[in-house]
Amino acid sequence: MAWFNIFRKPERIDESIKSFKGKGEDSLSDKEWRDLSGEGVEDVALLQMTGSQGILGFNNFFNSFINKTYENELYRIMNYRVMAEYPEIADVIEDACNEACKPDENLNLINLNIIDEKIKENENIGKVLQREFELLFFERLDINDSLWDLFRSYMIDGRLYYERIIDRNNTKKGIINIKKLPAETMDYHLNPINGRILKYYQYLSPNTKRPLNPQEAERMSTNSANRQPTLIMFEPEQIGFIHYGIHGRTMYEILGYLEKAKVPYNQLKLLETSVVIYRLVRSPERLVFKIDTGNMPKDKSIKYVERIKQKFIKKQTFNPQTGSLSQEPEVFSVLENFYIPVNQDARGSSIESIGGNAKGFTELDDVYYFARKLYRALKYPISRVTQGAEKGEEVLFGGSANQISRDEIKWAMFLETQQRIFCDEFLELFLLHLEFRGIKKEYDLNYNSFSIKMNPPSNYNEAMEQSFRETRFSNYNALKDSPEFSKTFLMKRYLDWNEKDFDDNKKGFDLDEKYFPKQEPEEGEFGEEPIEGVSDEEESVSTEETQEEEPLEEI
Prior knowledge:
Elements: H1 2-7, E1 11-12, H2 30-37, H3 60-66, H4 73-84, H5 87-100, E2 110-114, H6 117-121, H7 123-140, H8 143-157, E3 159-166, E4 175-181, E5 186-190, E6 197-203, H9 214-220, E7 222-223, E8 231-234, E9 239-243, E10 246-247, E11 254-255, H10 262-282, E12 286-290, H11 298-313, E13 314-319, E14 324-329, E15 350-354, H12 365-377, H13 406-437, H14 439-442, E16 450-454, H15 460-479, H16 487-494, H17 499-515, H18 536-549
Antiparallel strand pairs: 1-7, 2-16, 3-4, 3-9, 5-6, 6-8, 10-11, 12-15, 13-14
Helix pairs in contact: 5-8, 10-12
């Protein structure tokens, strides 16, 4: 068997599907990448990025417990997941996922929007794209059920890796499914000139050293007689990669959504622990035993007091399993009543109590302070967790109940930014699917042909627009009856009407006459009712005679 292993051809775990080679952005040449990335830098992998460096701490305690430096990305991701288990952070992440993944009236989380005017004019192309969109995202990927979990993983880890699965025997089927990959096992290799990802790696064992180049990665993925493979290689277009967009010291360090909350999270956790310990230690009452030692010498009195103390705080117990006697602390001894004799001179031992901290857990302003810092680091609206004077946020428009506070708008805009990151990834995935299907080349489709959008997390845009619209309409109503202003001018100025709006309004009046004709009033409906037995001519004559008989007023 040993000889067989020696002459056996080394095998490599190769999950790299060659069908992805030359697809999508992988089809661009290095020159086209340089044109897209500008002048570039000498080595983009070593480019100093923004973010927490972890070496500027004030002391070892700060670096160890408050702002800990991570040895690698594995420890960073694991720390993010520990933070996500904290109740306050878990609630914020859950709210973010619920609001970002809101369904529309058709219970769909994403929608396809055609941008190219030529495609809009051609209904057949639009129908083909809509059919392929529904086939990929709703039937194959079941995005309405899986998007919430993908978004949550992204918010916690700060990155998301997934494999794009195709049928190797029939690539014309396009993307048939996606598979979420554990972020702690994934890595990538960058082109040092333009920052382009050349290969994706998945480590098979922990603490695997990152390969310096793709050639070393191929050796590490080879199964030989002397060693087992330690990683798997993937083509660039075979893996979908979404990250938060902020890097640390190098392009390989990705700072996630929870990075800013790391310091206030550690401060709040340490403070809560210290508060609990302090209040538990200081809050109970203490008993002061004044033991009468008479005229004993100092050393004998100390031994006597120690013997009395041990008698009260410890109890001799028998262990039936081992058959031994042991002195164990008597926890309930503090709840017992002690009877100590007193001599005739009223001299003797006495027991007094010292009151504990009666305030208990009522003073928690320091905890609330760091809790507010944590929510601000998470960009969560502070008005949702505080009331009254502790709100700390201004209302953007007035003070009515139906208006939106400024922190709510910031939160909604933050979620919309994360939605755009996902939509851009879905757009790339959809174009890759169309490329496998041959539709992309047939209709000359690109990133500007259509877009994919998620439903907005809040209706603050509509609320703001409605408020502006009411203000403009109020200004128009205040000036429309003034002879100094033309109604046409006021409509253009305050209602933002153009010539097309005037034409549509005129056509609307014509349609109103067609569908809602005005009914002429019946006889006697708006005037006086006719007098019975008197004709119209007689009534008019009597009216004239009455007018002639009225005397003229003197001038």
